[in-house]
Amino acid sequence: MKQMHLAAHFPGVNSTTVWADPRSGSQIDFASFEHLARTAERGKFDFFFLAEGLRLREHNGRIHDLDVVGRPESLTLLNALAAVTDRLGLAATVNATFNEPYELARRLATLDHLSEGRAAWNVVTSSDAFTGENFRRGGYLDRADRYTRAAEFVATARELWDSWTPEGTPRPFAHTGRHFDISGEFTVPRSPQGHPVVIQAGDSDEGREFAASAADVIFTRHGTLEAGQAFYADVKARLAKYGRRPGDLTIMPGVTVVLGDTDAEAQENATEIRHLQVSPQNALLALEQVWGRDLSSYDPDGPLPEIDPDPESDLVQGRVKVADPLAVAAKWRALSEAKGLSIRQTVVEATARQSFIGSPRTVATELEAFVEAEAADGFILVPHLTPGGLDDFVDRVVPLLQERGSFRSEYTGTTLRSHLGHAEPVWKG
């Protein structure tokens, strides 16, 4: 049986988190991060994953409701978590558009040293002027250039990490390219993993190609087994052109899990959670993100709007824009008409993340089936509660996976690369 990989995503400012639940804690209190990280390590997870936002999102000129709690900086938190964990990988989302290779390479190498080889970088990009207003270069980067800059950024960071020999001798570096022209001496010795693990989040064709060329892990989403298999086959097939093998890239979709003592109870729990996630207000907000129009006068329990979306709208700022709002609206209308759904009911069904719902035994079986069918190499779990949303999974599902031999019972290595089964990169001096 294939061994799966598991990671934990700290739920924050997204539509998954249920802040109204009395068990929900703070998104900025260190105790919340520590609780989830310790739970993930108790479950022998590969890594703990933090998202990042460089600006509070706005909706119709107001701060988006889910952003009012703030968004702490990822690497600062992970350096603190390195002191209260021993084996768990620590993955930070850091933007390759609004940072510079030298400074970020230093920060990541420092985390890798402090954690004794557990650092990872989730590479993301941005091209919108709204986010760029927080930076000197605000909004200058064309959308078409975001992955070319990211690719050169990663390559430059790796040159910096390789500027120290494995024996501990520093060497001058120099890089001249389209986006970066730097030279000097790197201040941090080669870290325990050689290079921190690189993660890429994205499903677009550009994102898939970038992951195939430069990433160790790809964080994705897909709604069905068949869609997962198609994505898996496509991305793995791209590796050969870069001289890489299928095992060099680990594919891990983000998923939610809802448990119950029985499958029927789990379905009831899932229905309740989805309706807490999609409140009447959030249903209208989700609809406005597609339509690009102020729909606050509409009844969430009524039908979808008859008017078409505005593709040129700037109603929503700081979120990835819907690529083809007219097509999405048509899909939602077809769903609504076929099932007789209201606005809120349509959003509940149309925006659900890939979920595994059932008793612990059912969920364990379905997770294993995805890995065996080559729809994924593992999963990044996104719980709906902060910080205790992973507790039941670790207590009730992980032991079943361990008994069946599909997931480790103990860590066999000390670095994140060893957890993933990836070799340390060859030094390129």
Automatic annotation (TrEMBL):
Mark the transmembrane ranges. none
What GO terms are given for molecular function? Answer: monooxygenase activity
Q: What is its EC number?
A: 1.14.-.-
- Which Pfam families does the entry mention? Bac_luciferase (PF00296)
What Gene3D superfamilies does UniProt report for this protein, alphabetically?
Answer: Luciferase-like domain (3.20.20.30)
- Key word Metal-binding present: no
Q: What SUPFAM superfamilies does this protein's entry cite? A: Bacterial luciferase-like
Q: Which portions of this protein are annotated as coiled-coil regions?
A: none
- Keywords from the UniProt entry: Flavoprotein, FMN, Monooxygenase, Oxidoreductase
Q: What region holds the Luciferase-like domain?
A: 19-373
Protein family: Belongs to the NtaA/SnaA/DszA monooxygenase family.
- Can you say what this protein is called? NtaA/DmoA family FMN-dependent monooxygenase
Protein species of origin: Streptomyces flavovirens
